[in-house]
């Protein structure tokens, strides 16, 4: 039987701190966004991705992959966003089973209003508490972990 590689005190502090920060920070930024713009985190993710994409459209399958959601879960969420007039769904010309999600004018207005509020919340609750050096080290660390997780 392989012996577990227990965390040392420094690793344990970093891991527990990361977990607590992640949960608290996400909750706070999501509260701010919902209060200030009426958008949820998934709403913001969908709208910002569409706003940054070519022709403000994205294949449902690719959007689900980007958000790390199942297609079914995203499809249900997109249906709720459609009911609010933020997006539309079009059939794909090259794939009868596929769908393309398209940003509407209302969706564009919503993301344009929410983006400055979102970035201010992120800055206020996260970056304002870190030095430039800490931000650079964190960027290097997160990219190393993401690279390891996505290359396997």
Automatic annotation (TrEMBL):
Q: Which PROSITE patterns match?
A: HTH_MARR_2
GO biological process terms, alphabetically, are: response to stress
Pfam families to which the protein is assigned, alphabetical: MarR
Task: Name all HTH marR-type domain ranges.
Answer: 11-147
Q: Transmembrane region positions?
A: none
GO terms (molecular function) for this protein are: DNA-binding transcription factor activity
**InterPro entries the UniProt entry points to:** HTH_MarR-typ, MarR/SlyA-like, WH-like_DNA-bd_sf, WH_DNA-bd_sf
Q: What is this protein called?
A: MarR family transcriptional regulator
Organism equals: Kibdelosporangium phytohabitans
Organism lineage reads as: Bacteria, Bacillati, Actinomycetota, Actinomycetes, Pseudonocardiales
């Amino acid at each position: 039987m392989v012996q577990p590689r227990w965390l040392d005190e420094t690793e344990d502090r970093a891991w527990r701190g990361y977990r607590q920060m992640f949960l608290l920070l996400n909750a706070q930024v999501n509260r701010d966004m919902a209060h200030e713009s009426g958008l949820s985190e998934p709403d913001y993710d969908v709208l910002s991705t569409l706003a940054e994409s070519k022709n403000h459209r994205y294949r449902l399958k690719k959007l689900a992959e980007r958000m790390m959601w199942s297609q079914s879960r995203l499809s249900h969420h997109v249906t709720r966003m459609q009911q609010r007039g933020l997006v539309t769904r079009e059939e794909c010309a090259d794939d009868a089973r596929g769908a393309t999600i398209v940003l509407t004018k209302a969706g564009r207005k919503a993301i344009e209003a929410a983006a400055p509020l979102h970035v201010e919340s992120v800055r206020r609750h996260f970056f304002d508490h870190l030095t430039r050096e800490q931000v650079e080290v964190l960027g290097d660390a997160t990219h190393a972990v993401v690279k390891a997780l996505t290359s396997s």
